[in-house]
């Protein structure tokens, strides 16, 4: 969403998606510029607050989704880790059959299970990172809303 601010020396367009969340200093600077548009000041501030509130809600929803995915994947990771451990112990315990075709098939299966475990761990990390990113964005938007409201 883009807003236009008309002030004595010109016109300013602000792409809210690129500008927010922002620092307190930048938010206050924007408010000072909006203050110059006496005719539309209240409308502009209300539209920015409304947009940020919607974005904050979206961030909260996404953070919850990633938190749930993170929790849901934990059980799969524990199961895959246990399976890798068991298979590894089994491979190490049977040294006599290392040159047999059965060993090679088992080793191939072991590598597949290991790769699945690594993939699950990667997903877990990604979900956690996304959760933290959306939560931080939500908190920054909340601070920007408070500044816009003059709280």
Per-chain topology:
Layout: E1 2-7, E2 10-15, H1 16-19, H2 24-36, H3 41-93, H4 101-149
Antiparallel strand pairs: 1-2
Quick rundown:
With 151 residues, the chain is mainly α. The protein has helices at 16-19, 24-36, 41-93, 101-149, and strands spanning 2-7, 10-15.
Q: What does this molecule look like?
A:
The chain is mainly alpha-helical and 151 residues long. The protein has one domain (2-149). 79% of the residues lie in helices and 8% in strands. It is built from four helices and two strands, in the order ββαααα. It has helices spanning 16-19, 24-36, 41-93, 101-149, and strands at 2-7, 10-15. The chain has a two-stranded antiparallel sheet. Strand 1 (2-7) and strand 2 form a beta hairpin. Helix 3 (41-93) runs antiparallel to helix 4. The longest helix is centred in the middle third of the chain and has 53 residues, at 41-93. The chain is rod-shaped. The protein starts with a strand and ends with a helix.
